[in-house]
Design goal:
Layout lengths: L2 E5 L2 E4 L4 E8 L8 E6 L6 E6 L6 E3 L7 E6 L4 E6 L8 E7 L18 E2 L3 E6 L1
Parallel strand pairs: 2-11
Antiparallel strand pairs: 1-3, 3-8, 4-5, 4-9, 5-6, 7-8, 9-10, 9-11
Amino acid sequence: QVQLVESGGGLVQAGGSLRLSCAASGGTFSSFPMGWLRQAPGKEREFVAAISWSGGSPYIADSVKGRFAISRDNAKNTVYLQMNSLKPEDTAVYYCAAGPSGYYIGSAYYRESLYEYWGQGTQVTVSS
């Protein structure tokens, strides 16, 4: 069973930065597509960023493009989300998620249905 544990959330002022980490265990991390999704209060969960098993294909939501970056370290079984120039509208619970091993077309990474395993979430609050 794959387990995902997020860390790095917190309270930050607008314009600040945070780096989220997600440590995986219980599976072959290097073969999983990995994603970050978020859910703000009263809103549906939305895609933020994803990365292929090799790390060579990052996918970033338009709402955070140019401010957020996703990366992974397969040697450490960890995926990261670097968040810069944070805005109050980035306030949400951020979830790390893993999909089953395989090759996927780009559009698949944006769909929540790709992801089978989920972390417990970490709160990010951006104050104005």
